[in-house]
Structure formats: structure tokens, C-alpha cells
Design brief:
elongated, about 350 residues, Heat Shock Protein 90
Length: about 350
């Protein structure tokens, strides 16, 4: 009977599509398969002996918890580890296992696409639910407000002392303020007027407006792709979206200052709202501020959700609604020292 030889461990690890690392207790790399070398953008020779955290700009893995599990003779799994390499964020599922030789085997599987798809589906469902809730509440609020305002106007005319009108005017002003807030919660109800032109015209208007507000310790960098094709859009609505995102970045930097980058690129073969487009415009707003708190990230586009004291939390909710009307989408990535919002708009030809 013919017999064959089994492949050795190295051959098996080299053939895996998941990233495999062998590290010691200090996480210094002793082996990296080709998938790991590609992920970390380093050759095996350069990786050898280097602690894994030193290769990354950001690494969300709870190393202490992993080491506790391994010391107890147990495996360790984290289904959502974020690592940043050369400014690019990757979301991975990481499994760690102690080998008999004493080294730790780390297996990392990419979760970016699965997580993004899951997030988009969840956010779409949540947005519909939130919009329906807001519309119902708006109807219940605006009717009594109209009655309250009308009664205050009648009371103003019936007052024996005109000086007392100061108080009824407060009622009218506050009723108008609440009505305006409700209208903003509802967001734009009608699509705008679309023109086909360069998105850089809008970007430049935003730069001009924001430049008047920039403190001396904040730098606004423009990084435009001159080959980006023209696309159909409502300039006023896209200006509102970008202005809101850039101002959020400016406020996030705080008194320490920093850098904001406004970048445009061409995206290829992108699916937006279930439609596949050959080309799309990508507009990024990046800052090097403290990052968005993790507890806000899942609900960031909800109405009334804000990480800023005194903020209404309406800006991003309205921005998403406007981009939805353009058949586009907004995404963001954030970790300490980096936040990037990306707006995608289809280029229809």
C-alpha cells in the first residue's frame, strides 16, 4: 500500500489564510506565517524578536486578561480586537493558546467585512425605528405646542398691563424654540436640487467657513484627488454634512489643538443601499483628537446622542439622513488619537 508523508506544522501554518503568530510572554514574535506578514506589513525577518505592540499604532487587546487565562491553563478568545498599522484599522477575531514548548500561538481572523455588514444592517434597522419614534413624538408634541402658543398670543392681547406681555412673550419664544427643535429632529423631508459638478467646490466652501473658526494651534489639511469625477449632489446639503463633521472634529480637538485632514478619493466597486456602483466618491474627515468614547460609538447617529456638553446630538443624525437621500453612506473609525468619518457618494454614469 502506498504511503505518503504528512505535511509538517510549518507547512500547515504557512498555508492558512488566517494570520498566525508564535510569541513569547513579552509578545515578542518568534514566527509569523505569510498571512501575518501581510497583515503587519513586515517580513518574517523584521518581525522576529519584536514585541507585537511595538509594531502597531494601536492595539485594543487586553493583554493582562489574556495572560491570566493562559497562566490558568485556559485558552483565550476576543472576537473584536482592533489594531492599527500605518494608519489603517483592522478588526480581528483573536484566539490565543499556550503551546507545550512554552510559546503562545495567536490566530487572528479578519472580521472587518462581517462587522461592517452587521453594523450597517443594525444601524439601518435602528435608524428606521428611531425615525418612526421621532415622527410619532413630533406629532404629539407639536399639536399641544400650537395650542400653547395660540393661548399665549390671546393672553397677550387680553392683559390689562402691557408690561406683563414680557412673560407671555417668553412662552411664545420657548414654544417656537421647541417647535424648531422638533423640526430639526424630523430632519429634511424633501430631496434637494441636484447638480453635477466637482465635490471639491463644496469642500472648498467648507474650508473657507471653518478657517474663520480655526484657533492657531489647529491645522486644516486639504488632500484632494484631482482625478475624482464629477457627481450629482445637492451642494447645500453636502456642505451641511461636511461642515457638521469638520466642526465636530474641531470641537473634539479641544484646547490642545491638533490636525484635521479633509481628504477625497475615488472608491471602486462599492455597494450602497443594495446597489453595486463601479465608482463612488469617498470624502474623509480625519482628526488626531482623543477619539470617540466607546460607549457612544454604537448610537452615535441617534438623535439627541452627543459626547459634548450642551450638544443637541442632531448634527450626525441629520447628516446621515441627507447622505441617505443621496443613496450614500457614512462610516467612522475611532480609537484614542484618531477619528475618521468617511462619506461615500455614488457616481452614477
Amino acid at each position: 500500500m502506498a504511503t505518503g508523508t504528512l505535511p509538517d506544522a510549518g507547512q500547515i501554518l504557512n498555508s492558512l489564510i488566517n494570520s498566525i503568530l508564535l510569541v513569547d510572554d513579552e509578545l515578542a514574535v518568534h514566527y509569523a506565517n505569510p498571512a501575518a506578514q501581510q497583515l503587519l506589513a513586515q517580513s518574517a525577518r523584521k518581525l522576529f524578536g519584536t514585541p507585537l505592540p511595538e509594531l502597531l499604532s494601536y492595539f485594543s487587546l487586553n493583554i493582562g486578561l489574556m495572560q491570566e487565562s493562559l497562566q490558568a491553563g485556559q485558552g483565550f478568545t476576543d472576537n473584536e480586537v482592533t489594531l492599527v498599522i500605518d494608519g489603517r484599522s483592522h478588526i480581528l477575531s483573536l484566539t490565543a493558546q499556550r503551546l507545550p514548548e512554552g510559546l503562545i500561538l495567536l490566530e487572528m481572523a479578519p472580521m472587518d467585512n462581517q462587522r461592517r455588514l452587521s453594523q450597517e444592517q443594525l444601524q439601518h434597522a435602528q435608524q428606521i425605528a428611531a425615525r418612526d419614534l421621532v415622527r410619532g413624538l413630533a406629532h404629539e408634541i407639536k399639536n399641544p405646542l400650537g395650542g400653547l402658543r395660540g393661548a399665549a398670543q390671546l393672553l397677550t392681547k387680553a392683559l390689562p398691563d402691557p408690561a406683563l406681555a414680557e412673560y407671555t412673550n417668553v412662552i411664545i419664544e420657548q414654544a417656537d424654540r421647541l417647535r424648531n427643535l422638533v423640526d430639526r429632529l424630523l430632519g429634511p423631508q424633501q430631496p434637494g436640487m441636484h447638480v453635477t459638478e466637482s465635490i471639491h467646490k463644496v469642500a472648498e466652501r467648507v474650508v473657507k467657513l471653518v478657517s474663520m473658526e480655526l484657533p492657531e494651534n489647529v491645522t486644516l489639511v486639504r488632500d484632494y484627488d484631482p482625478s475624482l469625477p464629477e457627481l450629482a449632489h445637492d451642494p447645500d446639503q453636502i456642505e451641511q454634512v461636511l461642515l457638521n463633521i469638520v466642526r465636530n472634529a474641531l470641537q473634539a480637538l479641544g484646547p490642545e489643538g491638533g490636525e484635521i485632514i479633509l481628504r477625497t478619493r475615488t472608491a471602486f466597486q462599492l455597494t450602497l443601499h443594495g446597489v453595486r456602483y463601479r465608482l463612488a466618491a469617498r470624502i474623509d474627515v480625519e482628526d488626531n483628537g482623543p477619539g470617540i468614547p466607546s460607549h457612544l460609538q454604537d448610537t452615535l447617529f441617534y438623535p439627541m446622542v452627543s459626547g459634548r456638553e450642551g450638544g443637541t446630538g442632531l448634527g450626525l443624525s441629520i447628516a446621515r439622513s441627507l447622505i441617505d437621500q443621496h443613496s450614500g453612506k457614512i462610516e467612522f473609525n475611532s480609537w484614542p488619537g484618531h477619528t475618521e468619518f468617511s462619506v461615500f457618494l455614488p457616481i452614477k454614469k
